[in-house]
Amino acid sequence: MRLLPVLALALACATAAAAEEGRFAVSIAGFGAGTISFQGSEANGRYEASGQVASKGLASRLYPAQISVAVRGGVSGNRYAPAHYKETAIRKGKTKHATFRYANATPEVTKNPPDKNRKSYHAEAKDQKGTVDPMTAAFAILRDRPADLACNLDISPFDGRERTRIRMRGGTRKGDQLTCPGTYSRIDGFSDREMAEKVHWPFSVVYTVLPDGTHRVTEVVVPTTLGKVRMQRR
């Protein structure tokens, strides 16, 4: 399973709003793999987001990467409509840029340099109406939520090649923690081998309930073929 290429979010809105920020340490099978930092805000039905992802430790030697992302769009509750997304990724010394512009809820993807590694089975952007960019999906998962919006998400990310679906529903409260079950599903753009390997992947999101009722993500756990991937707030 490939994780969402970006788990990062949020820029300050031009209108007054409470900004969110956070930093997560990422580990795979107990070994440090990287960090994720984000800032974000929402006001008057609009959201803006920015963030950074960096590999470290053994992961940085095997797959050195630094990713910076930003997005803006509209939002109502847990429904997101991105308008413009941009990404700069530095991998193994090579810099690549990607831009998604949305018209009628459909992305138009531009990559520089062009994506020369596309396969025949990869999904076409013109067929991805109603999807969101990877960072919007990350924002939807990691941001602070009121009680009625925590553990209640159904969103379809598209990264330019692959379309997936992320669902969160229900949850178990114990003390000041709420653990939410989720499912990550492969939908389009994957090879026959990948679809035969596995389509649905479970994950969990742990919220800490703050005194004012705000639900704040403290941990995300994703079982993979490489071991458990953990994101822990620092």
UniProtKB/TrEMBL annotation:
Transmembrane segments: none annotated. Coiled coil: none annotated. Residues 1-18 form the signal peptide. Pfam families: DUF3108. Residues 107-129 are annotated as: Disordered. The keyword Signal applies. Keywords: Signal. Residues 113-129 have a biased composition (Basic and acidic residues). It comes from the Bacteria. InterPro entries: DUF3108. The keyword Signal applies. This is DUF3108 domain-containing protein. It comes from Aliiruegeria lutimaris. The lineage of its organism: Bacteria, Pseudomonadati, Pseudomonadota, Alphaproteobacteria, Rhodobacterales.
